[in-house]
Structures are given as structure tokens and as C-alpha cells.
Amino acid sequence: MSGPPPAAADPALLDSVTTGALGWLGAYRDRFRLPADVTTDADPNLTLKPLGELAELARLIQELHPRADVREAAAELFAFAWEQFDRGALHVALMRNEPQAVYPVELYGVFARAGLRHPAADALLTTVTGLRRWRVAGGDHTRTLSVLGAERRIGLPLHADPGAVFALTGLGVRAEPWLLDLRAAYGLTHDVFHLTDWGRARHRMAAPCAAYLRLWLPCWLEGELERELWDLVGEFLAVAACLPRPWYPADVWRQLAAAQRADGGVPERGDTADGPYRDDPFLTCYHSTLVTAFAATLARVGTDTAPDDSTGAACTTAPGRESEAAP
What we know:
Layout: H1 11-27, H2 48-64, H3 68-84, H4 89-97, H5 103-112, H6 119-129, H7 132-135, H8 141-154, H9 162-166, H10 182-195, H11 207-227, H12 230-242, H13 250-259, H14 286-303, H15 310-314
Helix pairs in contact: 1-3, 1-14, 2-3, 2-14, 4-5, 4-6, 5-8, 8-10, 10-12, 11-12, 12-13, 12-14
């Protein structure tokens, strides 16, 4: 006989985690500034990628979080990111320099969905996205989902069928769960984020995929907690909150909150000396801190939902204890 349903995460703890993370991001805001050589010699993984992630997740927090002070802090970060992109002028330069690249369109889509556009960027989009080379530049099916999401946000015709693309992803095929290595795990979490528009459209997830995730998320989370890989713990918690009937495990949230440092930063892993950027506190924390604030926001929205609807009812339902079996 099973015991009582596990408790959902405490809203006060979630708020503490989010405000701490946003405080850290604000304190390190200058590290997100783009260098003068961003369109020529700078590494996009250390410049454009962090800024784009800041814009994506700050905008979601600004849209969804129930507390006005949290929304205001996120709005300031989002406005900062738009200024760093020179209010769209940088998107124009990136598309001109690399017309075959998909990332300038992905980056522009973050702002376009918020109503922030640049006339020259809009004029270039039709030409760039009409290139045959551009349509295969994404590289894999998860990335193609991201590109299709950007096209939808901008209002462009979709260059492929999202359902057909999703069917070929790791989540779409419901790959063997014991073969989920680190790369596959991040691919799967992003399959979920692109499918559900970062948790805004949980209804898009079909029942077989939801059942697969509900069954295996507890096992995957347990493994990452043992390894203290906090970045992936945060991503899995965000996935749990993106389910059609979400899950907000209080015990996991307490462990992630305990890993958060006094300044609000969340290390990518417990042993930062083992990471590739161990001497840089920004690079060892920025992504995991962003992910934690994102996941905590989705969970916070769920804990604010009335208990008689499908979201609230799922807050205390543990994956793997439901009647549906994984396909």
C-alpha cells in the first residue's frame, strides 16, 4: 500500500530560490555584456548564447511569476538583453554575416514574441529563411524544433511540420531510459521546452510522452542528485513542471535550494573544481542559476493554481505512482 502523496514544493522556498537567483544574475549582469568583436572573433558560446538564454528565461519569468517584484527584476534583465542586442540592429548584422546560420533567427524570435522588432531584421528574415542551406543548418531534430518555434514567434511560415520533427527526437521516440547519457538528457529536456514553449503550452504534450516522463523522471532526478549535477537537476525540475499534470517534488526542491549559495548563485555541479570553467564563478553558475529561476517560476505558478483543476491536482502526484504505464 502506498503512503500519502508526496508534498509539493513550498511557495515560500520557491520564491526565495527565485529572488536569490535573480539577485545573482543582476549582480553579474555586466558579464552578459557583449564584446565589440561579437560578430567577428568572439566565441558565441561565451557571448551570444548566455545573453540569449538570459533573454529567454527572464522574459518567461516576467510574464508568469505571481509576484510583482520578481516580475520587475526579470523585466530589467530582459530590457538589458534587448539593449545589448542594440534593439535589433545586432540581429541584422548577424543575419548579414551568417545568412546560413539559424541562431540569429532563434535569438530574434525571443524578442519578437515580446513585440520588440527591428524593421531591417524583419526585411531580411524572408530572404534568410528562404535559403535551402538555412533550412538544414539546425543540425538535429531538437534544434529544428527550436528554429520552428522561432518562426512561429516571429510570424514566419514554418519550414517543416513540427509534429513530424518532434516524432524523430529522443522524447518523440521515447528512447530507452537507461541510455540517457548527459548529452541525451539535455536533448530530452529541450525537446520538452520547445514542444511546450518553455512551459507556456503544457497541453501540447501527448499522453504517451507525458506518461514516459512521469515514470522515469524520479529515477533520473535521483541519479543527478547523487552526482550533484545541479544544472541538470534544475532542467529536470522544469520538465516536471511542463507536464500536462505537473509534479513539484518538495524533497528535490529542498536539496536544490540547499545547493544555492548565499549570494543566490547555483553551481553547475557540486564539485566546481571538476568543471571546464572552474576558475570563473560566472561561467560555473550562470546557466544553472538561470535554469533554477526558470524551474522555480513554473513550480510557483503551479502552486498558485486552484487545487480543483488539473494542474493543482498534479502538484501532489508523484510520477510513477499513476495508473498509466509508460508505453
